[in-house]
Amino acid sequence: MLQVEVLDIERGIGEDTTLQLETFLMLRVFSKIENFYSFRNRLEIFEFLRNHLFLIPLLQEAPNQITKYFGTSLQLILEVITDPEATEDHELILFIHTDLSPDEALDKLEQLDENWWLDASVNADGKLCVHVEFE
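Above: the chain's sequence. Below: its structure in token form.
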């Protein structure tokens, strides 16, 4: 009986340690992403990314790709959006906030789509969208 209890305690410690390590690693990745993005509801984005780790490489690559078309005078913003018709369906939106004219920004977005995002979005599994936001 005592042996089973000791094993249960050791198993619990192992799980806690694994969870702490995962959280630590996620916080490190998250802090690197913060260098490129502003967040609307930081905690919600953190939880979303923790549950969709496959988006991290796309978010790391996106700033370099986006600046090729939009230049550096922009702000990249992340926000988790919930579908009002399906409250369990969440999606991360990457807003490219720009001071370009709407026509010019939409042209740049189309170029980004054709040259990078349409291929890259296959890895997003429908959980990340890129939109333009105007001043």
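The longest helix spans residues 2-33.
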